[in-house]
Design a protein that fits this description.
Elements lengths: L4 H11 L1 H11 L5 E5 L11 E4 L6 E4 L9 H4 L3 E2 L20 E4 L6 H10 L4 E6 L2 H14 L4 E5 L2 H4 L6 E7 L12 H6 L2 H21 E11 L8 H11 L3 E2 L13 E5 L2 E6 L9 E8 L21 H8 L8 E6 L2 E6 H13 L2 E4 L1 E7 L2 E4 L1 H5 L10 E3 L2 H8 L12 E7 L2 E9 L2 E4 L12
Parallel strand pairs: 5-6, 5-8, 6-7, 8-9, 19-20
Antiparallel strand pairs: 1-3, 1-4, 2-3, 7-16, 9-13, 10-13, 11-12, 12-13, 14-15, 15-17, 17-18, 20-21, 21-22
């Protein structure tokens, strides 16, 4: 499909004819495939890894695009399929970000959320917000599979998220945009592009940034990004933001880059900006910027709690839940509905407060349901990095057997012990199954099962 004519004209005006033509040629060229490895899952065998992504600690380019759907390691959370340019946001986080609270304000499907979760560690908390109810379920699924146990997924608009006023150390806005950076891999983005949509996106970005600023504490870091090229949604959005916020803004620490990466840097007031163009950098179109909220900026107060949704669990239940985690004294437990959850103690009270003020879809790690004092484990517990594998027998399956399991088909009983089993492939967790005599009850969730054939 041809690039939109007005996009061609505007880009030539913005970049100059020669630079623009190089960009247009790249947008009709080959798209690189990239992933980000889970930092705690170990080396993945069989992936066609070509080389590291230079600006991403765990990012890798692949020499070819495999069938991720038919790779058990993908379902085991060994890696996230994430575009290379977007992984750059890890360099915009504060150097000492472990233990911080991060708001990922436009979070679905979860690439940046899982990256932030890996960076802040078990003492930190990532609140991943998404306005779309369908997309928030995809986000929650990806958070569960990544298994860090330090994410709360919320559903609502930016104004709702900003109720936690001055609460976050970092607020990241990956703003909804006109998607010009996706023209190489997505014909729909080309088809739906219009100047009117650019203007609509820019207005939406202005509103989201104003709420993001409310949520950010004094001294905190604001990260802004889009996957588009045009100035109105990139530098223009920052300029409009500075029109009203400039007295509270100061430059963040300088982000050092290697010139060989091909990233174009710039400044918009106190913002340091970074532009990825596919004829210069090995990745899709991407724009990012970073700034800090001044230490003397005003701060707000949290409103009074309206409801309590997390209930305590009794001592006997706590003892059973502790049996399933490798560091039981580092965890706190509670119950929402009929499901028990676990949270790292450093942020447990923060999650409880969050759930009293905004709509929380998922948080921490869903442990499962208790029946007569025994836990029926949730799928999320299989992926949790803090799972104590000695809690149940482990059934190691071959790749072929794993695909049967992931399709929710019958699997032979020989590999399973009687009762509940953790199902793994090459040591990577896939879920749970229960052997009852000569048959196996496949507990893999229906909504996650593989539908694609070989």
């Amino acid at each position: 499909m041809q690039l939109p004519e007005r996009f061609l004209t505007r880009t030539r005006e913005q970049l100059g004819v020669e630079e623009a033509e190089r960009l247009f040629a790249a947008l009709d060229g080959e798209q690189p495939t990239s992933i980000r490895l889970h930092p705690l899952r170990g080396v993945v065998e069989g992936l066609p890894i070509a080389r590291p992504i230079p600006w991403s600690e765990h990012g890798r380019y692949l020499s070819e695009r495999p069938s991720f759907t038919l790779d058990p390691a993908f379902h085991g959370g060994a890696y996230y399929v994430q575009e290379a340019s977007s992984q750059f946001v890890e360099r915009l986080l504060p150097a000492a970000c472990e233990g911080m609270r991060v708001l990922d304000l436009c979070a679905a499907p979860g690439g940046k959320t899982t990256l932030y979760a890996s960076k802040v560690g078990p003492k930190g908390l990532v609140v991943a917000n998404e306005i779309d109810r369908k997309r928030v379920q995809i986000l929650a699924d990806n958070v569960r599979k990544w298994g860090m146990g330090n994410v709360a997924v919320t559903c609502g608009d930016a104004e709702m998220a900003a109720r936690m006023e001055s609460w976050y150390d970092v607020v990241a806005v990956d703003a909804p945009c006109s998607g010009e950076g996706m023209f190489r891999k997505d014909d729909v983005a080309r088809q739906e592009w219009s100047e009117q949509n650019v203007r609509i996106c820019a207005e939406r970005q202005d509103e989201i940034l104003s709420n993001a600023w409310r949520a950010l504490r004094a001294g905190g870091t604001l990260i802004y990004s889009t996957c588009t090229f045009n100035r109105e949604e990139d530098e223009g959005t920052l300029e409009r933001f500075l029109d009203w916020a400039s007295e509270e803004v100061e430059a963040a620490d300088e982000v050092a880059l290697d010139a060989d990466w091909g990233i174009v840097t710039g400044r918009v007031g106190a913002f340091q900006t970074f532009r990825f163009m596919p004829h210069r950098a090995v990745g899709e179109g991407f724009f990012a910027a970073v700034v800090r909220k001044a230490e003397d900026a005003g701060s707000g107060r949290l409103p009074k709690a309206k409801r309590s949704v997390i209930a305590p669990v009794d001592k006997q239940s706590v003892a059973e839940l502790k049996r399933w985690v490798s560091e039981p004294d580092a965890m706190a437990f509670g119950q929402a509905g009929d499901t028990c959850y676990g949270w790292f103690k450093e942020q447990a009270e923060a999650v409880k407060r969050l759930s009293e003020l905004v709509s929380v879809v998922y948080s921490g790690v869903a442990m499962g349901q208790l029946f007569k004092g025994k836990l029926k484990p949730d799928q999320a517990l299989a992926h949790f990095v803090g799972l104590r594998r000695e809690a149940v027998p482990v059934a190691e399956l071959t790749r072929a057997e794993s695909l049967c399991y992931l399709r929710k088909q019958e699997v032979a009983a020989e590999s399973f012990a009687e009762g509940m089993n953790l199902v793994v492939c090459q040591g990577l967790p896939l879920g749970f199954a229960k052997r009852i005599g000569g048959r196996v009850n496949n507990l893999y969730p229906n909504v996650l099962r593989i539908l694609k054939n070989d």
